[in-house]
Amino acid sequence: MKTGFLTQWQTSYSIKEGYKWLQGESRNVPWSKWVWNRYNIPKHSVIAWMATLGKLITKAHLFGIGVVTEKMCLMCGLQEESIEHCFFQRKYSLQCYVKICRRLKLSATPMDHINSSWKKWSRKYACKRKKSTCLVVLAALVYQIWCARNCAYWEKRIPRPEVLVDNVMHSVCNRVRQLINSKWSQGEKDWLEELARIQ
């Protein structure tokens, strides 16, 4: 039994306070707003969370623990496969990123790390719903790039960047359409439909 249980509530007890006590101290992290955005598709959130924490299993990681004998990138073969390389330095990822930025009407400034890129993306829109949608696109992009990497590893093929970007936009628009309610303005609905149509 956790210490403090018997002495904590000698006079009164509430479930809310008991639950907070059980959880213990937790620290707030700035990236939680985009990783655990309610608009996100859950599997996209999990991969974005692992990427943010640096916990995705790349070849560099596997090489470090002695599982593989080579740590070069599966998709380009030019550099060591790290999380930074997978999402920000590889030519394939940069092509996908530029195409997504074009669709969102964002300036395609180079991303240096996943923990800073979401801040740049969320500054574009003042509207909360548009900002949340933009962050969903980032989580979907991270997920799809990771899927393309896994496809290169397991199936020995790489989807074209255009196909990956279409998959991102299709999944995001379908997800966000499910969340539209009466609070959405007509302008926000039109923006989402325009986003779905842009090629």
Give the SSE map.
Layout: H1 5-8, H2 15-23, H3 32-35, H4 42-53, H5 59-64, H6 83-89, H7 91-104, H8 114-122, H9 128-154, H10 161-178, H11 186-197
Helix pairs in contact: 4-9, 7-9, 7-10, 9-10, 10-11
Essential attributes:
single chain, 199 residues, mainly alpha, 11 helices, flat
Helix content: 55-70%
Run of helices and strands: HHHHHHHHHHH
> How would you sum up the major sheet?
none
**Low-confidence spans:** none
Broad shape: flat
Structural class: mainly alpha
- The mean pLDDT is 86
Instruction: Please indicate the count of domains.
Output: 1
Q: What is the first-to-last residue Cα distance?
A: 58 Å
The amount of beta strand, in percent, is under 5%
Tally the helices: 11
Radius of gyration: 20 Å
Strand element count? 0
Task: Outline the structure in words.
This protein is mainly alpha-helical. The chain has one domain (29-197). The protein has helices at residues 5-8, 15-23, 32-35, 42-53, 59-64, 83-89, 91-104, 114-122, 128-154, 161-178, 186-197. It is flat, with a radius of gyration of 20 Å. The model has no long low-confidence stretch (mean pLDDT 86).
